[in-house]
Protein 1
Amino acid sequence: QKEVEQNSGPLSVPEGAIASLNCTYSDRGSQSFFWYRQYSGKSPELIMFIYSNGDKEDGRFTAQLNKASQYVSLLIRDSQPSDSATYLCAVWSSGTYKYIFGTGTRLKVLA
Amino acid sequence: DVKVTQSSRYLVKRTGEKVFLECVQDMDHENMFWYRQDPGLGLRLIYFSYDVKMKEKGDIPEGYSVSREKKERFSLILESASTNQTSMYLCASSLIRDSFTDTQYFGPGTRLTVL
């Protein structure tokens, strides 16, 4: 079992819809969870992070964390074609001081 | 504004050459990381450093070494480049080692091709 799992996609949504991206992790000691966006040929850029159970909102983005079920999700409201990218989930654990990345989900927003 | 820079965006080297990839951050961050990213495999940690002259192996350190002589600079060295080291190399930095709110910031990446 991979430590951090994401569906590779592509996930296709129409413009204006809500895109839902999911990530599961195996280490119950994980404390922080990050979402990065990566455009083709570019480096990852941070969207947001979450460390408490529940929802965290930042503009059109909402991160949701459920530690009991070991999953974290990212919702993108009012999706735009410019949101088309690969979204990486990363998990940090104080036990290892390392960030573990998923392989990413490719999102396509159709105009 | 957060800034991580890498010495080259694209690099082409020959098998057996010694390759240096440089990374500089101007945010006074303690931690620096080197990853490689390959299709279908995601980001894999090669080495990281949480202090000057300190280094720790990541998940795939074989064939690589690192150097951190100054806080702002972290170098990745391919002792004898091989074709299976063709990849995108990403440097990242973060502020504090032991903080669950710490965040990594990435440089633009170096696409290395070994012929």
Protein 2
Amino acid sequence: GENVEQHPSTLSVQEGDSAVIKCTYSDSASNYFPWYKQELGKGPQLIIDIRSNVGEKKDQRIAVTLNKTAKHFSLHITETQPEDSAVYFCAARFGNEKLTFGTGTRLTIIP
Amino acid sequence: DSGVTQTPKHLITATGQRVTLRCSPRSGDLSVYWYQQSLDQGLQFLIQYYNGEERAKGNILERFSAQQFPDLHSELNLSSLELGDSALYFCASSTQRLAGLREQFFGPGTRLTVL
């Protein structure tokens, strides 16, 4: 089955700097890659997603890039703010199969 | 607020007991998914229901079962509880059976503690 690896497990970034979280997946047939943000005491919230026919997608300060050849995708957060502090999960899915999640990255924004 | 509701928010019980977790999907969503989140294993998919029928199964133990009712709410039943079952249990919903085409919206979760 699908395996998703996520790095780093923890990341501390100075406020205003950029943060990058990387994931690799094993199933080359995967075609949907969402990113979720989970704040303390809450459920994961979808923040951005990308499909395999697209190489990059941006939404304000958040962007995701996909390299199908290398089977990895990354989350980029620019101009980080304290409210960006959370745990971020990547995931991968083929068609209508189940989502396979990475192990999460705890992002801390240092004021 | 995702529109997905889960009850109870917290549940404390003893080993060997049985509990039921409840989930109400977003209005109009036919698919419900259950996930287990533990410290050492991240988010693990348990099971999916679509319009009352089981659609997909993940790493769900035989001691666990679920169902989706005609009003589309779902219940996850956990029996013969063990210490290792302590975790956050999330429900998510999406609009279509072919959920690969639609994002999943997560509820706030139920924190289960088995003593």
